[in-house]
Amino acid sequence: MHSYMRAVGFGTSINGEQEVDILLDRVCQKYETRRVVRLGEENRYFLEMTKACGPNVGLCVCGELDEEGFHRQYYFPYLRGSGDTCGGEVTVEKRVSGHSYEGVCEDGRVGVSLIFYLQNPGDFRRETEQQHLRAAHVTTTLSALSLHGVILLPQKTRETSDRSDRKREDYFTQRSAMVRAAKNGNQDAIESLTLEDMDLYTMLARRTGREDILSIVDTSFMPYGMECDQYKIIGTIQFYTQAANSITGEMLWQLTVECCGMTFDVCINQRDLMGEPEVGRRFKGTIWLQGRLNYPE
User: 279 — phi, psi (to 5°)?
Assistant: First the structure.
């Protein structure tokens, strides 16, 4: 069973692969959306079927259809995010193991390439089959599922005025431009980023001797574990809502968090979240990052 089924409400209610197969058959028979893409000149088709099991969450089943029938290749739980998280160039590659896809988005706000699990492979395969891929004009909506999280209090000295928010946004914008320039070989940008990192390291070394690290670090976004699309984050909660899985009745928290200048949605089972979410408090946890490519009409 997919390990992140618990995050969308299939935790204690689904036991074993047999019950998962029954659930996936239900998705295939009573899907809410379906995308069909013809593969080349052969009589083969790629199918992507989704069924919601709560607000913005559900299951997706993908496979191929040929003369012998439908062959399920993989499935995954998803959280449908909102807004455009990234507008940078996106590259999509097939995973080494399995038939699914990973996306890579260059975003200078984080300082690393964002690797995410592709939520809409049907749209991607349609674009590539028709040779209409326009990566430069594609935006990405990120979202995440989590199996463990903790609610932290906000920083005591954190400013909440519109002026401070604009300053933070300007900083991330300038840093993104600096990172892009450094990747293009701009020596001044490389030196500026190096000096900034050295100053940051010196400040942290000085303050960690007398302060807790969580009172210094406001938000963070770091790769985590062996999987390339998993991260450990600390993000400020901007909005939250509680919902129930319509099939199992398990309660879920859906949080909109701001992390390193990016805003995206996180879904976690109520059983796996320690603490009470509130706007302004912070979410700390490990996430499986997903992304949806928004192709122009």
Answer: -60, 130
The answer, yes or no, to whether residue 135 has pLDDT greater than 50, is no
pLDDT tens sequence across 239-257: 999 999 999 999 999 999 9
pTM: 0.84
* Residues linked to residue 92 through DSSP beta bridges, in sequence order: 103
| CB contact burial 260-291 (16+ within 10 A = b; e otherwise) | bbbbbbbbbbeebbeeebeeebbbbbbbbbbb
Q: How far apart are the first and last CA of the chain?
A: 36
CA distance 281 to 237: 6
Report CA torsion sign: 83, 85, 88, 92: negative
Per-residue b or e along 201-226, where b marks 16 or more CB atoms closer than 10 Å to that residue's CB:
eeeeeeeeeeeeeeeeebbbbebeee
State the helix-helix crossing angle for 162-183 and 187-207, rounded to 10 degrees: 130
CA pair distance 2, 216, nearest whole angstrom = 36
Q: What is the DSSP letter of 62?
A: E
